[in-house]
Specification:
Blueprint lengths: L4 E7 L4 H10 L3 E5 L5 H6 L3 E8 L14 H4 L5 E5 L8 H8 L7 H16 L3 E5 L4 H14 L3 E7 L7 H12 L3 E6 L1 H8 L5 H22 L3 E5 L4 H4 L26 E3 L7 H10 L4 H4 L19 H20 L8 E5 L5 E5 L2 E14 L7 E2 L4 H14 L3 E6 L13
Parallel strand pairs: 1-2, 1-3, 3-4, 5-6, 5-8, 6-7, 8-9, 12-14
Antiparallel strand pairs: 10-12, 11-12, 12-13
Helix pairs in contact: 5-6, 5-11, 6-11, 8-9, 13-14
This protein binds xanthosine-5'-monophosphate.
The site of xanthosine-5'-monophosphate has 12 residues, from loops.
Length: 419
């Protein structure tokens, strides 16, 4: 990257990510590095203009040498020591001015840079991408389409556990609007076949993950001459609370389990972006807002919201109730204000009355939560009329559902998902 860089060094602070983001918001590109970074690592970072030493009380560093020496950081590069324990907030703007770093970190500059970098890496080679329709893979797709057009092949595997309208949106946006080379695979029957009778949540995740890799691999083998695999890895995936610890490839979306004979080189153009920057990048590339601001959605999809062994009728009840919930949240102006909201259908029935007759049907549970990091969560206080409307619509419009319940449990004790 051509930008000037300010390096934030994690010396036990709990605010390293925040600091790195705040400096980027001032227009200067930042990188986060661990307390034990070496002179060679520093030399590999382009255009280092300054260091922020982010001190804090984190126990992991007790008894260790914390301050990197001038021999490592280089003499004369401006440095700012920030301590979590200090009362005053650091004046980052003044520090940025002191470093003389060019304030040229912008999405337009990032996109232009990456387009060039992708073209340089890929040449006239072909690239494959598993396009889930989630924010990260969608933005990678849009960026690669901008850079290399139809040298990219996107594979969208519909495992039958997506929300209503999602596979159709992926096809419409990428194939029809952006002109992508998109392979759409409806593997619903395969997935539901494998999942038949599987009731344990972790087993369900394993089945879905393994089958996803199998389907993706089959599609990859049908294509010829693919040399690169693109992934939607983002910065939080490779930093762990601001340290250098690299995490294993996350969940099944990143297709970490492809066999070694499919020997692809990786293309990861978003790996230095924070989530909000990924969204800004998507918008700048023309992706629809609904796709860019999509709420978090688990890899196993509605599969972990159709509790216990998945059946088609209950799965359809999850999908239909989820669609109503999203519609009503949108109408109430809550889209984008509540972090995650969804419905789930447990595998139990209760007695009700429908048109004068006994109706032995499922309940639908509604969960709406807010969180910063998904480690803890609080429950959104929904307006009573909205709750009544949801109860009314779901019991009348979703076949097989005769009750609506609201889950008021924070995390902990409850997790966000039920499975
Ligand atoms: P929990 O239920 O653990 O969820 O409180 C925390 C966040 O993670 C999402 N989640 C998943 N995401 N694969 C994913 O990609 C999964 O298997 C999975 N399980 C939970 C969940 O939706 C929430 O946002």
């Amino acid at each position: 990257m051509k930008q000037d860089t300010i390096v934030v060094i994690d010396l036990g602070s709990a605010r390293t990510t925040e600091l790195a983001r705040e400096i980027r918001a001032l227009g200067v590109y930042t990188e986060l590095h661990a307390h034990d970074l070496t002179a060679e690592q520093v030399a590999a970072i382009p255009n280092v203009r300054g260091f922020v030493l982010a001190m804090g009380p984190r126990r992991a560093y007790e008894g260790q040498e914390l301050e990197p020496s001038e021999a490592i950081l280089g003499a004369g590069v401006p440095m700012l020591t920030v301590d979590d324990a200090a009362d005053a907030r650091p004046d980052l703007d003044a520090f940025v001015a002191k470093t003389g770093a060019a304030r040229n970190w912008s999405m337009e500059a990032f996109i232009a840079d990456q387009v060039e970098a992708i073209r340089a890496q890929v040449g006239d080679g072909k690239v494959l991408l598993a396009l889930s329709g989630g924010v990260d893979s969608s933005v990678v797709a849009a960026l690669l389409i901008r850079a290399i057009g139809r040298q990219l092949t996107c594979v969208h595997v519909n495992h039958g556990l997506l929300r209503q309208g999602e596979p159709e949106q992926v096809v419409r946006v990428f194939r029809e609007e952006l002109g992508a080379n998109l392979v759409y695979v409806d593997a619903t029957d395969r997935f539901l076949g494998k999942l038949a009778g599987v009731a344990d949540p972790e087993q369900k995740r394993k089945v879905i993950g393994a089958e996803f890799i199998r389907v993706f691999e089959e599609e990859a083998r049908k294509l010829e001459g693919i040399a690169f695999l693109a992934q939607g890895t983002i910065y939080p995936d490779i930093i762990e609370s601001g340290t250098k610890t690299a995490k294993a490839v996350k969940s099944h979306h990143n297709v970490g389990g492809l066999p070694p004979d499919l020997n692809f080189a990786l293309v990861e153009p978003l790996k230095m972006l924070f989530k909000d920057e990924v969204r800004a990048c998507g918008l700048a590339l023309g992706l629809p807002e609904g796709m860019v601001y999509r709420q978090p959605f688990p890899g196993p999809g509605l599969g972990v919201r159709c509790l216990g062994a998945i059946t088609r009728d209950r799965l359809e009840a999850v999908r239909a109730s989820d669609a109503i919930l999203r519609e009503e949240f949108e109408a109430a102006g809550l889209r984008g204000k509540v972090w995650q909201y969804f419905t789930l259908i447990p595998d139990v029935r209760s007695v009700g009355v429908r048109e004068g007759a006994r109706a032995f049907e499922w309940p639908c549970v509604i969960r709406a939560v807010n969180t910063v990091d998904a480690m803890t969560a609080t429950v959104e206080r929904l307006p009573w009329p909205l709750m009544e409307r949801l109860a009314d619509r779901i019991t009348h419009e979703v076949p097989g559902v005769n009750r609506v319940l609201f889950d008021l449990t924070p995390k902990p004790v409850g997790t966000i998902e039920w499975e």
